[in-house]
Design a protein that fits this description.
Number of domains: 1
Transmembrane segments: 20-38, 58-78, 134-153, 159-181, 202-223, 280-301
Catalytic activity: L-lysyl-tRNA(Lys) + a 1,2-diacyl-sn-glycero-3-phospho-(1'-sn-glycerol) = a 1,2-diacyl-sn-glycero-3-phospho-1'-(3'-O-L-lysyl)-sn-glycerol + tRNA(Lys)
Pfam family, one: LPG_synthase_TM
Protein name: Phosphatidylglycerol lysyltransferase
InterPro entries: L-PG_synthase/AglD (IPR022791)
Shape: globular
Strand content: under 5%
Distance between the termini: 45 Å
Helix content: over 70%
Amino acid sequence: MYLLQKGWNEPLRGRNNIRILFNICGVFLLCIFFLLSWRSFEVSSLWKHLQDLWRQPYTIMLLVMMYSIAFLFRAYAWKLYLHHRITMKEALYGLLYSLFINHVSPLKVGDAVRITTITREKKVTLGEAAQSVVVLRILDLFILGLFGAAGMLLLWRSILLNVSVILTCVCIGSVMLFLLYKKVPQFAEKQWKQLKESLFTLQGGMILLLIMLSWICEAFVIYEIAKPLSFVQAVWVNSVTIAGQVFQLTPGGIGTYETVMTLALQAVGTMQSDAYQWSLMSHGFKFIFSYGVGVILLLLYPMELRSFFSQKGEKILWKK
C-alpha cells in the first residue's frame, strides 16, 4: 500500500515542483515589470502612440481581422485533430471562451472552459477533449519555440552560430528534458506518444501548418503597432512573448507579457521607452478583444460564471 501511494505521489510532487519553479520565474518577471514601469511609463508618450493608432481606422480593422483569423486557424486545427467530431462553431467558442476567462481570472483555467465547451453535446468524451487540448498546447509551444529559434538564427546569425553557444543551448535543452522525464515520467511518455501519433501523418502536417499560420497572423498585432519592426522581427517578438506566458500569474499575464515583449523588442534594437509603450498597446488591444468577444459569447452561448469562479474551473454549469 505504501509503495502504491508513493508511486502515485511522485508524479504529483514532480508537477508541484515544476509549478513552484514557474511561479518563481513569474514573480521575477513581475518585479522586472515594476522596474520597467517606474523607468519607462510616460502618460504623454503612451497617449501620443494611442492617438497615432486611433487616427488609422483601417489599421485597427486589420488588427481585429488578423487576430480573429488566428483563432479561426486554431479552431480548424482543433477540429481536424478531433477528426471533425466537433463543429467549427464549438471549437471557436471554446477557444474564445478560454481567451476571455484567462483575461478575467488569475487562475489558469481557460482550458477547463475550452474542454467543457466541446463536451456539451457529448460527441467527444471529457478525456478526449482534455487530451486534445494538452497536445495542441504542446504543439503551440513547439511552433513558438521553432519561430523563436529560427528568428534568432536570422537576426543574430553571427552570434548564434558560435560553437560554444550551440553547445550551451544543447546542454540546457538536454537537462530540461531529463528533468521533465525524471520528475513526471508517465506524463512525459504519454504526451510524447500522443505527439508522435499526431505529427507523423498528413493530417498532423496540416495541423502544424494551421498552428503556424495562426501565430503568424497574431504577429500582425505587434507588427502594425510597432511600425519600425520588420515582419520577421514581429513574428519573433510575438513568439517569445507568448511563450513567456507559461509564467503567467495575473489575469491575461499582466506584467509578464509586457516584460517579455519589452525585452524582446529591445533585443531587436528598439528603445526601452518605445518598447514598453508598444507592449502596453498590444496587450491592451488583446484585452479589449477578449472582453469584447467574451460579452458576445455570454449573449450567444451563455455560461454560468459564478459556479465557474467558485469552483476554479473544476465544474462548469451551463444555463438552459
